[in-house]
Amino acid sequence: MKINSYIFIVFILFLFGCTKVDKLEANNQEFVETVFSINESITYTIPNSALDFTNITIGGTTYNLTSFANCADLAVPAILTFGLGELEFTLDYDDFIPTENPNPLADLAHNIKPKNLTLELVNITDCDFSMMENLTLYFVMDSVSGSVSDFTLQNPADLNSPYDAVKVGEYPSIPEDIGSTMTLEINDDAILDQFIHAGTFQTYITTTFDKAFTATEAIINVDMELEVTLKNEP
């Protein structure tokens, strides 16, 4: 998977409220932490070549399938299974995507939280997100590799404990009537400061396909809204 991702800190013109007030004894001046909304668009590209829909091994037997119609259920036809009937299967997909925050003012913000994640499948008109069973997004540090079991996930009860990954959002069970747009369930406990302040990090996507697509690639646009607290200290 490739990604075109630049996390820009863009302050919306309205405020969401105040979270903290500190008073200086010298002049009784109030300092207010201000909460802003940040919006960012990201594009994920899943190449068809990363998913082998035609050479499938089930129960130790490899089936060579000629082709699949677009958005067809993944299954080995009964005629090829020697009495076992039609065999349905799924394909897991995961990838690390380099992600960059080039904004030099990022360190002025803290308590950065995911607020909304909306995904749109933009290039496969006769199929939709029902070709996936589930989808999860993580932010991980540049040094991380492997899979989720290799991550040290953020502990919301102890943010001072070292971590290198955090789940941002997920759709654990995608329905058949989902359509080409879906909104992920946000991890309300996620704090993204470490990743945004690092300048560069990775987005890790994991999903399971239960339908095929025939296009060269599946292009997914992500509209991400983050809640950010501006540091405003004496």
The tally of structural domains comes to 1
Number of helices: 1
Cα-to-Cα separation, first versus last residue: 44 Å
Secondary-structure element sequence? Answer: EEEEEEEEEEEEEHEE
Helix percentage range = under 10%
Shape: elongated
Round the Cα radius of gyration to an integer and report it. 22 Å
Number of strands: 15
What can you tell me about this protein's structure?
The chain is mainly beta and about 230 residues long. The protein has one domain. About 5% of the residues lie in helices and about 45% in strands. The strands form four sheets. Strands 1, 2, 3, 9, 12 and 15 form a six-stranded antiparallel sheet that branches. It has a five-stranded antiparallel sheet with strand order 8-14-10-11-13. The protein has a two-stranded antiparallel ribbon with strand order 4-5. A hairpin with a 2-residue loop joins β4 and β5. It is elongated and about 70 Å long. About 10% of the residues have low confidence.
